[in-house]
Amino acid sequence: MSPEDFVMLLRKWMLDCGGMALVAGLLASVPVTADTIAVIGTGDVAGALGPEFAALGHTIVYGSRDPSRDKVRALVERTGNGASATTPAESVVGADIVVMAVPGTAVEAITNGLGDLSGKIIIDPTNAIDRSDDGYFKLVYDSSTAEIIQDAAPAAYVVKAFNTLNWRTMVDPDSSGGPVSIPLVGDSAEAKATVAELVEGMGLEAIDLGPLRYARHIEGMLLVWIHNRYGGGDGPAFDYHLRKEQ
Ligand SMILES: NC(=O)c1ccc[n+]([C@@H]2O[C@H](COP(=O)([O-])OP(=O)(O)OC[C@H]3O[C@@H](n4cnc5c(N)ncnc54)[C@H](OP(=O)(O)O)[C@@H]3O)[C@@H](O)[C@H]2O)c1
């Protein structure tokens, strides 16, 4: 089955079963295409999302500060489907979608270094947290990393996604023991629909939680997650599931 056929089947299933009505409605207006996706960074999140998106039929171009190193070559090979790696600025040139799989505190400088991002969808999975004096974590920014990216690339369509779960759950949603919701916030309904399609293709649930100005609250979920994990002992894992009311 081709990736396009798979997505068509997915759409039909969602429309038939009546579940995920919001996302199904969003998907109904989006063309099914194989995109070129620039994944900036080659760490854990890049190594989870890049191969997942490639498996959905998309072509991945990693943007790395050092694309020639062995670790990056191995990631390109593992990703397959014509993946490649180059510099961050070159990776975005032919890309429809850009994934910022980079440290949250570096997003402004990295976005500024990517050149013209007009018309592209930017997926932002980043978090930026720091320790307060009392040991508890705090958000680094008064706004959000998503809004910092949007300000640096005003003609792009930023969608916050994938920042509320561990990379291992991204590649193996069943390991959480139940459905995992991926909150999406952004100001473009069409961009959110495209990202929802990627999310659903990975076996996760896309939930549209509103405009980009809500990104700070989505990023704030990490404070709960990370404190529960590291505040004492191992702590529980954190997966977000927005249950539909019966
Ligand atoms: N790890 C998770 O489970 C998880 C889950 C959800 C969200 N997040 C968020 O997603 C983002 C990426 O997380 P990650 O775990 O993939 O991080 P990571 O393993 O440290 O990878 C970050 C990548 O960013 C690139 N990079 C570009 N500029 C950089 C700089 N100035 N300093 C360091 N790296 C730079 C590096 O790739 P090159 O060396 O090839 O340039 C590096 O591999 C973070 O904002 C994190 O908070 C992480």
SSE inventory with pairings:
Elements (H helix, E strand, L loop, with lengths): L2 H15 L3 H7 L8 E5 L3 H12 L3 E5 L6 H10 L4 E3 L1 H4 L5 E4 L6 H6 L8 E4 L4 E3 L5 E3 L5 H8 L4 E4 L6 H5 L9 E6 L2 H13 L3 E4 L6 H16 L16
Parallel strand pairs: 1-2, 1-4, 2-3, 4-5, 5-8, 9-10
Antiparallel strand pairs: 6-7, 8-9
Q: Over the alpha carbons, how many angstroms does the gyration radius reach?
A: 17 Å
How many domains, in number, for the residues? 1
Count of runs of 4 or more consecutive helical residues: 10
Helix content: 25-40%
Between the first and last Cα atoms, what is the distance in angstroms? Answer: 34 Å
Q: Can you tell me the CATH topology?
A: Rossmann fold
Mean pLDDT: 87
Largest beta sheet: what is the strand line-up?
3-2-1-4-5-8-9-10
CATH architecture: 3-Layer(aba) Sandwich
Which H/E pattern describes the elements?
HHEHEHEHEHEEEHEHEHEH
CATH 4th-level superfamily: NAD(P)-binding Rossmann-like Domain
Strand content: 15-25%
Q: In this structure, how is the largest beta sheet organized? A: 8 strands, mixed
Count of strand segments: 10
Report the oligomer.
single chain
Shape: globular
* Helix/sheet category: alpha/beta
Name of the CATH first level: Alpha Beta
* Low-confidence residue ranges: 1-32
Cofactors, ions, other ligands: NADP nicotinamide-adenine-dinucleotide phosphate
